[in-house]
Amino acid sequence: MDVRNTWDQWPDMNGRFGEFGGRYVAETLMPLILELEAEYRRAQKDPAFKAEMDDLWTHYVGRPSPLYFAERLTEHFGGAKIYFKRDELNHTGAHKINNCLGQVLLARRMGKTRIIAETGAGQHGVATATICARFGLECVVFMGETDVERQKPNVFRMRLLGAKIVPVSSGTGTLKDAMNEALRDWVTNVDNTFYCIGTVAGPHPYPELVRDFQSIIGKEAREQILEREGRLPDVIMACIGGGSNAIGLFHPFLEDESVRMIGVEAAGHGIETGEHAAALNGGRPGILHGNRTYLLQTDDGQILDAHSISAGLDYPGIGPEHAFLRDTGRAEYLSTTDKEALEAFQLCTKLEGIIPALEPSHALARVGEVAQELGKDGLIILNMCGRGDKDVFSVAKHLGVDM
Amino acid sequence: MPTERITAAFDRAKAEKRAVLVSYLMAGDPDLETSYQALCALRDNGADIIELGAPFTDPMADGPAIQRAGLRALAAKTKLTDVLALAARFRETDQTTPLIIMGYANPVHSMGYGAFAEAAHGAGVDGTIIVDLPPEEDEPLRDEYAKYGLSVIRLATPTTHEARMKKVAEGASGFLYFVSVTGVTGAGSADPTVIAGNIEMARRVSGLPVCVGFGVKTGAQAAEMAKIADGVVVGSAFVEHAEAAHESGDLARAPQGMGALAKELSKAIAGVAKP
């Protein structure tokens, strides 16, 4: 495969990461995504845009997030030192707000007054509703019916923030169906509406701009670890649904050849059962939601429903840059079952006093074996991309506790 | 050759000083035999060109009526190869009515562009409308189509300004499908006076016949669109007859209802004299 001199050069001018990415959208949307790309290029060159982002990141979101040495978890596994990048401490409790802030500022530059978003776990919906409240913008969040049911606290939070929630019953009522419905809304309301996509998927330029906004995670982590340990980490790890928190951590380290990158997909009931959300480990390349990437699909090219205990990972695709990093061998992709994630959730809570979201619990479930493989001299950064408050009800249910 | 069948359909209508009727049905909705009967009924009642929908699990550009049609076709286990087999069956007895497959990229990508082009040609298909393959992304498919003379039919919309239209027209053939409203299929109808200018521009830039679709349900609406376009596309209104047939359990109602609607629409369109 054609690998360029630097990883920064991707995507190419056609929005491609090697064979992945692109702009597979209906013609109605083409002028909009071309306009978005043009506006993003202008914003990138505008110091005022960066200044506004930085100011809100510092005073509203609470950046930089700490890099925390998870001492007891490290002792527990008896291997490499494990650090958490604490993006769960951000305002609204997850990494999602990094991206929402950037996109809503872009929407404002473009004169758009109505923001739409899709959400699975509700974290992206909450983050979008939050930023919209902050700027007084109309906000409509599409959410699968199944997810509305299993993420009630976040649904209520979004409503408090003034967002309108549209439950989506088509398909299986999960994240991919919410994304279909958001795209349908967007083609209908092209004039005033900005689609704030929550992950590094969708048509170009979304995978690029979401990555850029999330890269603050890796930039900070790289500086922080150099300051704390005087060297780069051996391994950086993150969970993957669409892959925005992982790409945010990975991207600033791509040129550091010594740094191994491990993404962890959701294996649900086990990849062999077919009930999972591991697009890289259990799918093949296809076209969905504007880009070419690995997808869960039938032999006939119909999209399969993903399954994961974590609503935030419950998506049959993955960001195209991850597909590219996997095929080039730059990053490795493991998977974690629902059961393993639940165990890791409890372990982290007891040992570190940090209740992780079920999403990063998938990465936590693999960190022990990686730490042991590296040995005591090793250094790992794991992205704690969200906190588990939203999950306590569903975890209780899975553990058979009646609340 | 495939594209010639499309051109001939427009030539026939032109000789009769009228616009063409392009009708849509979802293949396999509610089953393939019913779709075959419906295809024949559409042809017998004045449909000049027929779009054969290929079902997809995630039809991002479709409204509820065609979404449900796709789900019924998928429930009946309709595969892309079945859609092609249906076209081939129709082609056994009909050598003139153009057949266009309309669907989404992934099933075609999954089959492989080369294999699909060969099979589509073999089945007597004349072209395709792949909703999520804009000009930027359809070159690999076009290269395969060129081997067989298959048409790449492109969509243009009210958001397609003149510079963009040039891109849309590049490599397009057969006709241009002008989506009259920004929205999904089956949504509200456009005001013909608002889009007349866009259609004129599309025709001038592309040099192709322009057919207007989305939101056209009745003979009166079709007649209005026939005044400004070379053809009128009707989809959701046909599909609703398949739904009614499925729900009543009387599948014969699908070809009957579709045939009656095609008759109404073609009559209304024929009532508008074209220069």
UniProtKB/TrEMBL annotation, chain A:
InterPro entries cross-referenced by the UniProt entry: Trp_synth_b_CS, Trp_synth_beta, Trp_synth_beta/beta-like, TrpB-like_PALP, TrpB-like_PALP_sf
Cofactors named for this entry: pyridoxal 5'-phosphate
What Gene Ontology cellular-component terms does the record carry?
Answer: cytoplasm
- Kindly state which reaction or reactions the protein catalyses: (1S,2R)-1-C-(indol-3-yl)glycerol 3-phosphate + L-serine = D-glyceraldehyde 3-phosphate + L-tryptophan + H2O
Q: Name one GO molecular function term.
A: tryptophan synthase activity
- Biological function: The beta subunit is responsible for the synthesis of L-tryptophan from indole and L-serine.
Name the chain's protein: Tryptophan synthase beta chain
Its source organism is Hyphomonas jannaschiana VP2
TrEMBL record, chain B:
- Entry annotation: catalytic residues: 51, 62
Can you say what this protein is called? Answer: Tryptophan synthase alpha chain
The record's comment on protein family reads: Belongs to the TrpA family.
What Enzyme Commission number(s) apply to this enzyme? 4.2.1.20
Highest taxon in the source lineage: Bacteria
Which is one GO molecular function term here? tryptophan synthase activity
Pathway assignment reads: Amino-acid biosynthesis; L-tryptophan biosynthesis; L-tryptophan from chorismate: step 5/5
| Function noted in UniProt | The alpha subunit is responsible for the aldol cleavage of indoleglycerol phosphate to indole and glyceraldehyde 3-phosphate.
SUPFAM superfamilies according to UniProt: Ribulose-phoshate binding barrel
Q: Which GO terms describe its cellular component?
A: cytosol
Oligomer and partners? Tetramer of two alpha and two beta chains.
